[in-house]
Request: fold
Amino acid sequence: MQHHSRIYILISLVLAACTGLFMSCSQNLPEVASADYSVIFDYSDETTLPSARLSVFANSASEVRRYQRIKITSLENDWCWDTEILAMLESDDTQWAGCTNLVPPENEKLPVGTYEITYYNADEKEYSLTVDVKYDVQFYDVLLPALPEVMSKKRGIEKIAVYDKEHILIYFGDRTEEFLTTRAIWNRYREAASYQVIWYADKGNLICVTPEKPVTPEEGN
Reply:
């Protein structure tokens, strides 16, 4: 159950993207338990190779709204991301905070190796830890039509996210038979307006996000 909860947290943070800027005057030092990551490949259409971004986040038993800033540094090539835009998610007794949109320079690939993550609170007190990022770089060359076969070889899991017309998530879970066509999605959720398929592998450390598509009730879609 713990494994599935972690996958849910990973993908939920990716779907949530950056949800807010945390403003806090707490004098307490941030308390971070451990860090995790996902390398995300985003597809725009069937003929364009995906773009990649890195999502890093830490879990804490303390109030994550204390965190005001995060700095991520690749120890392989000294690339550095420094931002005050944080994503947050709370599950059971654990809170997660991080950033989901760390992109490399144009025409560069995200380095494999160790990254240092430093959290700061309002008075610049800091806490640092590291995470080792490993992923299959072949995904930079995988077009969307080939993705299901590649993911099958990696024992990837296919999920689906369904949104209403306000783009509020109304379902996220396995893409079972009742979600294989837009007609089937509409039969299940009459308020559905769009959906997107999300694949993950390597225990959630690799995620592929396909283009969002409209939900229409016509048969055969």
Observations:
- The chain has a mean pLDDT of 83.
- The domain at 2-138 is CATH 2.60.40.10 (Immunoglobulin-like).
